Amino acid sequence: MVDSSVDSSSMNPQKNLVVALVQMSCGAIPQANLNDALAKVEEAARRGAKVICLPELFRSQYFCQREDSAWFDLAESVPGPSTEALSKVAKQHNVVIMVPIFERRTAGLYHNSVVVLDGDGSIAGLYRKMHVPDDPGYYEKFYFTPGDTGFRAISTSVGKLGVLICWDQWYPEAARLTTLHGADVLFYPTAIGWHPSEKAQEGETQRSAWQTIQRSHAIANGVFVAAVNRVGHEKPAEGGDGIEFWGSSFICDPLGVVLAEASTDQEEILVAEVNLSRVEDIRRNWPFLRDRRVDAYAGLTKRFFDEDFKL
Amino acid sequence: MVDSSVDSSSMNPQKNLVVALVQMSCGAIPQANLNDALAKVEEAARRGAKVICLPELFRSQYFCQREDSAWFDLAESVPGPSTEALSKVAKQHNVVIMVPIFERRTAGLYHNSVVVLDGDGSIAGLYRKMHVPDDPGYYEKFYFTPGDTGFRAISTSVGKLGVLICWDQWYPEAARLTTLHGADVLFYPTAIGWHPSEKAQEGETQRSAWQTIQRSHAIANGVFVAAVNRVGHEKPAEGGDGIEFWGSSFICDPLGVVLAEASTDQEEILVAEVNLSRVEDIRRNWPFLRDRRVDAYAGLTKRFFDEDFKL
Questions:
Q1: Which residues 6+ apart lie within 8 Å of A169 measured at CB?
Q2: If you write DSSP's letter for every residue of A216-274 in order, what string do you get?
Q3: Distance (Å) from the alpha carbon of A29 to chain B's nearest alpha carbon
């Protein structure tokens, strides 16, 4: 599914691309969330967007707040209900859509994935979340097998696009590898929020770290970054404080300058025009890719240099 | 020179470490700069610092603004004048000192290096700048052979410390590898500034990107980061606008929170106490090292995935 193509940044030096991020809240009924997403994608297309990205697992509330095998009922195949519905919109409006899904690959094998739909409604590519978290309230390792797609730049009618998912955003390795595959824009559909008990003291530090690490991927790699998060306070039916998803979807340029940023608590369709020729311009002036010490990076495949420690 | 030792973060859970960064301007006379550095290091020691870092190539003005083989006269061996003078101060005050030097390894073989002096005055380790830039006004590839030390955590009497140099700061690979060797603090002696013609329009974006990428290394790796830059407007004798070094030395914690930050234009000794137990605490709550996909990172040793592009 990763087609070969030429580098869009060098071939389309003046190419502008209108990107939309759908910052939405998600309710208890999957079909209602899907309908809401369809309407918002259509609105984004009417506003001129050519690439539209939905937030991680948008078709449901964030069920990973607890471990319950009943939630596997939410999983869907590729193609499946979400991709089929959104494929029609993609084709109708000739837009690329990034569709995060809870993917059922077979019985007992599930992934946290994104399907990239091209402007003709076809599936341009699939990415399965490579880094899967597991923290109090984010019990993803119970639900999702770590991805085996590797890191990809997916060829679409508007260029090569990278997509990574939430926890991936903390890993410079993921951004770098996606860039080395030729992506000019990295998308990060996300579901991240505050534990209410931590919000007052730690909330702004956490949100700032989240934005900082993603801006840093733009800077290190000379790419645009577009992160889209959900909003809303989701409380599990069985009790608990739940999670206040912090929104703050944003798009930044290859110098890390934020071009557009959404609120922490409102549904919004964030639209920004990005000039892909900036990738070429900025990498000429900040030639980080030129000087990578690929001869000295083999240790990145190690967990830790235990041999440095006599135990 | 990279001794084996136990992990300071786990062995010293309540260990506080006072760090000092010497933000200084550098004049035309090397011995005067060295004397100035000696006095400032002594002042930092009197203020309680246990680790003191000088800025990149502090013994001279930033000669890389042009290519002139006469400047190789500035290079010194290890041990040499800078390390011998500072070694006495290290021993006298029982402090660790990071001493950036223009290193002469043999005739025709020079490096941009840092010698780490331990509190007994001995040499604890050496690091040679791995990523060497070359941009208008920063013609470093003429002067410096790319380092062959690899990335190191240097064992000292106060723990394992990482040191990287200037251009290295744009490479997440460098920060990651140094962390995987066991460093709890990453030091970045630096010489970076504005081209006066770009300052008004691009200056703040550039300075912000510089801080952002380094804060991101703290976040991604769960380490403290301490960056020290010079100040002053250095104009080459033969003309040209020169470079306005932007200071802005700072120390941030493993969440990327800036603990102390210096001005853009004044000499300062920036002192901050860092609590190394924060490395343990934060990595427990933000367990990024746990989930690295070391099985999927081999491509980081590639320059680019050319096979994705049919040329």
A1: A188, A190, A210, A213, A214, A217, A227
A2: HHHHHHT-EEEEE--EEEE--TT-S--EEEE---EEE-TT--EEEE--SSS-EEEEEEE
A3: 31
Q: Give the separation between CA B53 and CA B100, rounded to whole angstroms.
A: 8
Judge whether A205 is closer than 8 Å to chain B, CB to CB: yes
Full DSSP string of A20-70: EEEE-B--S-HHHHHHHHHHHHHHHHHTT-SEEEPPTTTTS--GGGS--GG
For B125-142, the pLDDT digits (tens) are 999 999 999 999 999 999
* Statement: residue A1 has pLDDT above 50: no
Q: Is B205 exposed, middle or buried (0-12, 13-18, 19+ CB in 10 A)?
A: middle
Residue-averaged pLDDT of chain A: 94
Query: Which residues of A are annotated as catalytic?
Result: 56, 129, 166
Distance from CA of A38 to the nearest CA of B (A): 32
Q: Where are the alpha helices (DSSP H) in B144-195?
A: 172-180
Q: Does B133 touch chain A (CB under 8 A)?
A: yes
The CATH code for residues B15-300 is 3.60.110.10
On the question of a cis peptide bond just before residue A30, with omega within 30 degrees of 0, the verdict is: no
Per the confidence metrics, is the pTM higher than 0.80? yes
Question: Would you state the pLDDT for residue B10?
Answer: 46
Name the burial class of residue B310, with classes exposed (0-12), middle (13-18) and buried (19+) by CB atoms within 10 angstroms of its CB.
exposed
Q: Minimal Cα distance from A214: which residue of B?
A: B216
The complex's ipTM? 0.95
pLDDT band at residue B311 using 50, 70 and 90 as cut-offs? low
Q: How many CB pairs under 8 A join A and B?
A: 195
Angle at B211 between CA B138 and CA A53, to 5 degrees: 110
